């Protein structure tokens, strides 16, 4: 049923998990909404608002006071089960928990991690290069962030395969695990490491965060679990999706491959621009007060969906938004790929470094690559859109 306060001309039938044509092109599927009003009501998934214009996406994302993060709304059951810290917190409580997480991911630690990320990337590439082809998603994009995460929390190499299967379920859930089972499997995997780091801190990410007090007191076990879960779920499929999109762009644009091979000094700016051009994260909010936006009223209790793609690809946000122009990255780009305001990604610096290292290592170590002519690229929608298959070929 459509609530009485939703004007009829705002109603659309748009399923965020399966936008029309998403399998072929995530971005084109979402962009269909840019032709209509700035705030629409989708009848799918129980009914919710979608911010459908750049300025509206940005404005609502920045309104953490009236739009709460607590429930992770649109995905049924997800928020209740996951209870992420700090993602699902508001106000002063959020700030108290976010601060130690920010400290743990501070830029000096990110810089120190770079050689390890480089080593992980090189090792993966070594086995791929002689093959002459790969499915970039399952052979590289999904594995790199998983190995980086495990390096971050100092998990020994021999303990890694167990998380691989879980990693696949996180990035490409096939329905074989419920949200509860996924949460449980992640907790079971992470718990021995959390327990050890709480008792005897080392210099890994979990230790750094958990040894910072929360509002002047130590973390409880439950809070520690919820935070570590957030880091695991927040830093895998997002990075995998981004690296997949970057590789897709380069496969389609050999001229950009050539340019970045010849001018590796352009890679940081290119990474920023590619991250703007290929945003795949969308978030949910729950209105805790009435909010007027784009000429309509979001009522207290309504759900709102904020897709970064509809900000970054709105021609009112960026000139010719679909064109990748590396010189855009020479100045800070006001994109929403990593979010806006109070909840802006705490892993943004780490993610950027991963994309830069990927570009540098892949372009430096692999020959020119292209899409496999006989196989299809496929994509998926949802809170993190992504390529689900990206067949690449090169001369071995
Ligand atoms: C390209 C990769 C990434 C993208 C696109 C991305 C995107 C985002 C976005 C859009 C948000 C805001 C969520 C909201 O407003 O509700 C966010 C928050 C967050 N991200 Fe990332 N992220 C990435 C990588 C990472 C990494 C590598 C980590 C950590 C290892 C991480 C951990 C988190 C956490 C903990 C939050 C919650 C912050 C808070 O609520 O205060 N993310 N991310």
Automatic annotation (TrEMBL):
Binding locations of heme b: 61, 98, 285, 343, 345
A Pfam family of this chain: p450
Keyword Transcription regulation: no
UniProt keyword annotation of Iron present: yes
Alphabetical list of Gene3D superfamilies matching this protein: Cytochrome P450 (1.10.630.10)
Keywords for this protein: Heme, Iron, Metal-binding
GO molecular function terms noted in the UniProt entry: heme binding; iron ion binding; monooxygenase activity; oxidoreductase activity, acting on paired donors, with incorporation or reduction of molecular oxygen
InterPro entries the UniProt entry points to: Cyt_P450, Cyt_P450_B, Cyt_P450_sf
Family named by the database record: Belongs to the cytochrome P450 family.
PANTHER family in UniProt: P450, PUTATIVE (EUROFUNG)-RELATED (PTHR46696)
Protein name per UniProt: Cytochrome P450
Species assigned in the record: Novosphingobium aromaticivorans (strain ATCC 700278 / DSM 12444 / CCUG 56034 / CIP 105152 / NBRC 16084 / F199)
């Amino acid at each position: 049923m459509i609530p009485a306060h939703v004007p009829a001309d705002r109603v659309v039938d748009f399923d965020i998990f399966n936008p029309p044509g998403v399998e072929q092109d995530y971005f084109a599927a979402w962009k269909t909404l840019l032709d209509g009003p700035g705030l629409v009501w989708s009848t799918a998934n129980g009914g919710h608002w979608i911010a459908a214009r750049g300025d509206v996406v940005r404005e609502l994302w920045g309104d953490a006071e009236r739009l709460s993060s607590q429930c992770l709304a649109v995905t049924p059951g997800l928020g209740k089960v996951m209870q992420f810290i700090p993602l699902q917190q508001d106000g002063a409580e959020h700030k108290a928990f976010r601060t130690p997480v920010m400290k743990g991911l501070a830029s000096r630690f990110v810089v120190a991690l770079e050689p390890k990320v480089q080593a992980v990337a090189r090792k993966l590439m070594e086995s791929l290069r002689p093959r002459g082809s790969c499915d970039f998603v399952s052979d590289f994009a999904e594995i790199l962030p998983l190995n980086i995460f495990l390096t971050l929390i100092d998990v020994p190499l021999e303990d890694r395969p167990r998380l691989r299967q879980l990693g696949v379920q996180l990035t490409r859930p096939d329905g074989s695990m419920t949200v509860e089972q996924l949460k449980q499997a992640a907790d079971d995997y992470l718990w021995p490491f959390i327990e050890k780091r709480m008792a005897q801190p080392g210099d890994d990410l979990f230790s750094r965060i958990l040894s910072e007090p929360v509002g002047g007191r130590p973390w409880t076990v439950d809070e520690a679990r919820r935070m570590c879960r957030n880091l695991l779920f927040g830093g895998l499929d997002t990075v995998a999706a981004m690296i997949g999109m970057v590789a897709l762009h380069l496969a389609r644009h050999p001229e950009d491959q050539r340019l970045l091979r010849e001018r590796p000094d352009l890679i940081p700016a290119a990474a920023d621009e590619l991250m703007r051009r290929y945003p795949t994260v969308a978030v949910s909010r729950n209105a805790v007060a009435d909010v007027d936006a784009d000429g309509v009223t979001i009522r207290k209790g309504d759900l709102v969906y904020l897709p970064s793609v509809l900000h970054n690809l709105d021609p009112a946000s960026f000139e010719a938004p679909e064109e990748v122009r590396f010189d855009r990255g020479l100045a800070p780009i006001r994109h929403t790929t990593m979010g806006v305001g109070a909840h802006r990604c705490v892993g943004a610096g780490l993610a950027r470094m991963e994309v830069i290292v990927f570009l540098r290592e892949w372009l430096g170590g692999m020959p020119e690559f292209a899409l496999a002519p006989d196989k299809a690229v496929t994509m998926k929608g949802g809170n993190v859109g992504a390529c689900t298959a990206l067949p690449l070929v090169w001369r071995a």
